[in-house]
Amino acid sequence: MKSNIVFIATSLDGYIADSKGGLDWLNIIPNPDQVDMGYESLMARIDGLIMGRNTFETVCSFDVEWPYTKPVFVLSNTLKKIPKEYEGKVELVQGALKDVLAHLNNKGYTQLYIDGGATIQSFLKEDLIDELIITTIPILLGGGVPLFGDLGQAKELELVESKTYLNQIVQSHYKRKR
After folding, report:
1. What angle do CA 69, 72, 78 make, to 5 degrees?
2. What pLDDT score does 146 carry?
3. CB contact at 8 A, 68 and 91
4. CATH number, position 26
5. 82 CB-near residues (< 8 Å, 6+ apart)
6. Are 29 and 11 in contact (CB under 8 A)?
């Protein structure tokens, strides 16, 4: 069975980055034991990641080694080639989302992690998201990059489970009702 999954953190008011694109607020709750909040479980069940160009560039800007062991597909209609240091780790994909998914599914990638604000919004608008795992950080940013945009029509979801981490962070797992 194919599944497109969003795994993302938001502020209490629904933003995935602050008004300057910053992510520092993600770490306001101390996590001395480095609880992964389900990330490793997600990574174990997916075949690959589809992320937008902005998210790819953000990840590249972190001063860390490439964090993914699964294939990463960067969705962009403007990026012409992948920087040399990421060749072999990242593949550029372009075109209509349904065509991109069909191409990746035909290559055996059926459990995909969808990441990046505009990318998630595009997938949602075309009703291509099967699961949303949203981790809510208890902060009000008051503005920034929203997780959700205009969907064109309502999308019904059902709650699979809700967990609390570090006595303050709530993670809700939803599946799309079809």
Report:
1. 155
2. 97
3. no
4. 3.40.430.10
5. 74, 90, 91, 92
6. no
Q: Is 137:12 a contact under the CB 8 Å cutoff?
A: yes
DSSP states of the chain: --EEEEEEEEETTSEEE-TTS--GGGG-S--TT---TTHHHHHHH-SEEEEEHHHHHHHHHSSSS---SS-EEEE-SS--S--GGGBTTEEEE-S-HHHHHHHHHHTT--EEEEESHHHHHHHHHTT---EEEEEEES---SSSEES----SS---EEEEEEEEETTTEEEEEEEE--
d(CA 94, CA 12): 33
Find the domain containing 47 and state its range. 3-176
Do the beta carbons of residue 72 and residue 134 sit within 8 Å? no
> Across the 178 residues of the chain, what is the mean pLDDT of every consecutive 10-residue run?
96 97 95 96 97 93 91 93 91 96 97 96 97 98 96 95 98 97
Per-residue model confidence (pLDDT) at position 41: 96
Number of compact structural domains in the chain: 1
pLDDT at 63: 85
Contact 120, 8 (CB under 8 A): yes
Structural contact between residues 105 and 2, judged by C-beta atoms closer than 8 angstroms: yes
